[in-house]
Amino acid sequence: KMPKLDDFRVQRQFGGSETLYYPDQKLIDIAQNILSKIVELPLFARIDGVWQKDDFSLIEIEMIEPDLFFNLAPNSISNFVSETLSFMPKKSLLKTSNGFNQNFCIS
User: Fold this and answer.
1) Which side of the chain, N or C, has fewer Cβ within a 10 Å radius?
2) How many Å apart are CA 55 and CA 16, to the nearest integer?
């Protein structure tokens, strides 16, 4: 993510932009090591941090993302839907508006 000129905010509504980035293996290894500390991995997680000399400093682990940047990668929406469906249990309970639980299956 990049802010517009003379601003610090990176969100699109403030003029920021984003580009697709391919991390090197060292950064992937660092992120995987951080994620290995999480007991139950979520479907989505983003590791945010900064490099200080040769050390990576973790800023946050983002697990709730308001913008998944579907515009940056072809097939990203269908891939995300497929992964979401495979992440969910095949049989689950759904609470209906009348307060009753109802079984549903994903096929």
Assistant:
1) C
2) 27
